[in-house]
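Re: that backbone. Tokens:
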């Protein structure tokens, strides 16, 4: 995914992920939610995964005695040359799935799995700090999330899960990109008018973003940009931006061109 790498200095030491890091991640994500005896500690009991609607058992994770062995096997592969040869996005998806499958803790496995996947991406140089959270995407599509996870057991193939996982990453990166662009635009607009707060409509934001890319806008371009909006409304929006000292107008009303003011 272009434009999202470079979170750490190239060539810097990147510590290998391990069961100890997993335990600490789990402890932090469930702090004040689980007893201290369970936070950061592998489960000592058997668990089952049930369908929330029907109560039917949909998956039986490995028994507690098997958990440490599966976890060590996972991290051995992840840190091996063979594992490192796999693209980071796919490695993160495999790590997420395997932790969900092994279900090493009594609760909080989903949170820990997603946090570990993001940590892997961060250590590989992806900019996943600050605004980025896989929870945003998965929480808004819970049925698709669990269906994609269960598809591996049903089909014996990771393909559908990895497609879903990487789609979620892509959607979330684009969400963050849009948010950052809007924040950047807001800061530049504030700077233009002396730091005071201003309010723009969605239409006006589109007009300003177009001007940032193309330098000027006239009614012909504005109609294409806002096809469902009348000429009178477009003109009112443009006049308002001029009054807010964000735009300069050159020419007659409907033949005028509008330019950004030193943004």
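Recovered sequence:
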């Amino acid at each position: 995914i272009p434009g999202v790498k470079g979170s750490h200095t190239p060539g810097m030491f990147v510590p290998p992920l391990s069961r100890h890091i997993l335990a600490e991640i789990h402890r932090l994500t469930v702090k004040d939610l689980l007893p201290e005896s369970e936070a950061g500690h592998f489960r000592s009991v058997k668990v089952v995964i049930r369908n929330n609607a029907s109560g039917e058992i949909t998956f039986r994770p490995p028994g507690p005695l098997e958990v440490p062995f599966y976890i060590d096997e996972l991290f051995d592969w992840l840190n091996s040359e063979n594992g490192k040869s796999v693209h980071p996005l796919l490695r993160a998806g495999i790590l997420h799935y395997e932790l969900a499958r092994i279900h090493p803790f009594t609760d909080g496995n989903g949170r820990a799995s997603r946090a570990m996947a993001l940590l892997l991406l961060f250590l590989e140089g992806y900019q996943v700090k600050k605004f980025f959270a896989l929870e945003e995407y998965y929480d808004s599509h819970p049925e698709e999330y669990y269906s994609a996870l269960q598809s591996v057991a049903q089909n014996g193939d990771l393909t559908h899960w990895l497609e879903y996982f990487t789609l979620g990453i892509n959607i979330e990166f684009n969400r963050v990109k849009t948010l950052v662009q809007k924040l950047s635009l807001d800061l530049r607009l504030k700077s233009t008018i002396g730091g005071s707060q201003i309010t723009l409509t969605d239409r006006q934001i589109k007009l300003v973003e177009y001007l940032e890319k193309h330098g000027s806008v006239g009614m012909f371009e504005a109609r294409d940009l806002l096809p469902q909006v009348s000429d009178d409304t477009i003109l009112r929006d443009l006049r308002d931006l001029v009054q807010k000292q964000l735009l300069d107008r050159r020419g007659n009303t409907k033949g005028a061109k509008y330019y950004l003011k030193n943004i």
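The CA atoms of residues 166 and 248 lie 43 Å apart. The two ends are 29 Å apart (CA to CA).
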